[in-house]
Amino acid sequence: MLVKTQSQARMIERVRVLRLAEKIRKKERRGSKTEFSAKFSRQRNLKIGRRFEWNDISVPEHLTFNQKKRDECCRFFIAIEYSVSHGKNVRLIFNDTKHIALDALTFLLAKIQKLRWIYGENSVTGTYPSSRRVERVLTESGFFKILGVRSRRTYTKGAIRYVKYRSDVKLLGSHIEALKIDLLGDDIQLYKPIALKIVRAIKEAMSNVSHHAYQTKSIRTKKMLGRWWLNGHLNVSKNELSLSFYDCGVGIPKTLVRKYGMEQIRGVFSLLPIVNPDDAQMIEAAVELGRTGTLKSYRGKGLQDMHQLIKLVGEGSLTIHSRQGSYHYNYPNAKSKNFEEFLEGTLITWVLPLNKAAEIADSLIEVDGVDDE
């Protein structure tokens, strides 16, 4: 009886030690693991009966579509889509990332949401960034929300006021109102003539998506038909407003032909009938051409509104990327360029100094009036 009691005691002690060791290991794993994909890595793929295997892709140190980094940025996104479409689950590694520009952030949010809709929720995940600045950008833009993961931190308002992205398949007045509230709050005043031009530009971009951007035969899921994404931030110290708009449709060089016809587009550049403009020239033509065939007076003014506003203010920029072309207007210079890599859809980014814009608000009333709601 004594032997049995000692054996039981040893067994109980061994179980206690094993449980304690397992508890310590779990605590260590929680402390050292920075990947928010941890909950996925412990799941099993029920179809094939084994754990997920991640294809790690490092996010560039500077994720941006500027002239120097555009091709590198495009290759990064192409690598993500290629891996996912070939049956690999991608994990984005943010360890070396120090900066994510607004245009690349908008494209990143759209790309991940699209891939997760088409290939499943486990197709793309990532790691928490090493940079606090990058983590804040991802948190406040809604990146973690797309992945269904809680952010590690909450932030108070700082020098840059971010907004969570917005995405929809139709245009609602509530989108515009919510965006103004998020960006401007009660402490930043946006004069009505300026607000009208900005709102009209956004409406034009959204309307263009619903009328021209998508081809039904290329849509993999109904959620994508007519889908757009809108993102932005306000640099409070500089009083500078930045907005980025994206759709993953066929792109301006394709939609422009349907809207205007090739002869009218060639006329913008005085091209011979046998010469077709390249992607960069097509984007430039979209900025130059003012009217569409919809017979609605507000259509076709969006890009021209922002271009004109930047010109009148004498500061700011308008950048458009679509397919292999780009157009960049940074007052007073405009530049079109073609690149090696392909960018799906159309990505538009506006930057406007609000304090400078306020100085010319009265002249905008004379030009446009104030009745265009």
List keywords for this structure.
Transcription Regulator spoIIAA, 3-stranded parallel beta sheet, 6-stranded antiparallel beta sheet, globular, Heat Shock Protein 90, alpha/beta, disordered C terminus, 14 helices
From the 3D structure, determine the CATH topology of the largest domain: Heat Shock Protein 90
Helix content: 40-55%
The CATH architecture assignment of the largest domain turns out to be 2-Layer Sandwich
Give the distance, in angstroms, between the N- and C-terminal Cα atoms: 92 Å
User: Strand tally, please?
Assistant: 13
What does this entry look like structurally?
The chain is globular. The strands form 4 sheets. Strands 8, 9, 10, 11, 12 and 13 form a 6-stranded antiparallel beta sheet that branches. Strands 3-5-7 form a 3-stranded parallel beta sheet. It has a two-stranded antiparallel sheet with strand order 1-2. Helix 3 runs parallel beside helix 4, helix 8 (192-213) packs antiparallel against helix 12 and helix 9 (252-260) crosses helix 10. The longest helix has 31 residues, at 2-32. A hairpin with a 4-residue loop joins strand 10 (228-235) and strand 11 (240-247). It is an alpha/beta fold. It has 2 domains: 35-156, Transcription Regulator spoIIAA; 162-373, 2-Layer Sandwich (Heat Shock Protein 90), CATH 3.30.565. It is 46% helix and 21% strand.
Give a brief outline of the structure.
The protein has 373 residues and is of the alpha/beta class. The protein is 46% helix and 21% strand. The protein has two domains: 35-156, Transcription Regulator spoIIAA, CATH 3.30.750; 162-373, 2-Layer Sandwich (Heat Shock Protein 90), CATH 3.30.565.
